[in-house]
């Protein structure tokens, strides 16, 4: 009886990794999420500093609890990202849409999702990087099947490019096995955030990766009949 009660009324917990290069706006976005979805206000923009460790944010939406992990995007900190891949149900990748001079860096950091773990031999790693363009790189085993939400962030700035333009630039069309979406957003005025979270919850609930993570954690659904 207790098992049935827990199954019917407990909310599923999802872990969502927020990545992107430094200054993409990840922490500002996380604080805005808190303001929108929880009773406590997130930090104001002027109190947010570059991230060195890990920021955690928790929200509840409909039948889901989401724990967000926001990591630092400075080049020297990106090697930490991989430690969080295995446990993540989905990824949000933020790009500063108003800063085209850093699109290339954003694109290659997205591609590097794959390359860290393939080998510890640096020569071989260089070959692998060459052989796997970013769209293949995202298929790295630790992130297999993880839904990907790419945000064209900072849309409140007049020179920000649209989500469609960013989509064309990154050219991830070949990622047909992975569920992904581009969305225009702003961590300042909050546009695109509700649509993004709604989409994420839907895809995470249906994803095979969620099933696999549940099975690994020993979660056994209680039969209802
Ligand atoms: N106009 C505008 N500025 C933003 C937005 N989001 C963040 N910023 C600004 O961009 C700068 C970087 O924001 P952060 O949230 O610290 O960026 P981050 O991606 O967490 O950076 P790291 O922690 O270094 O990886 C700050 O000056 C923010 O105020 C946004 O949506 N619009
Ligand atoms: Mg940060």
Automatic annotation (TrEMBL):
Keywords: ER-Golgi transport, Golgi apparatus, GTP-binding, Lipoprotein, Myristate, Nucleotide-binding, Protein transport, Transport. InterPro entries: P-loop_NTPase (IPR027417), Small_GTPase_ARF (IPR024156), Small_GTPase_ARF/SAR (IPR006689). PROSITE patterns: ARF (PS51417), RAB (PS51419). It is found in: Golgi apparatus. Belongs to the small GTPase superfamily. Arf family. This is Uncharacterized protein. It comes from the Eukaryota. Pfam families: Arf. The gene is A10g501440.1_BraROA. The lineage of its organism: Eukaryota, Viridiplantae, Streptophyta, Embryophyta, Tracheophyta.
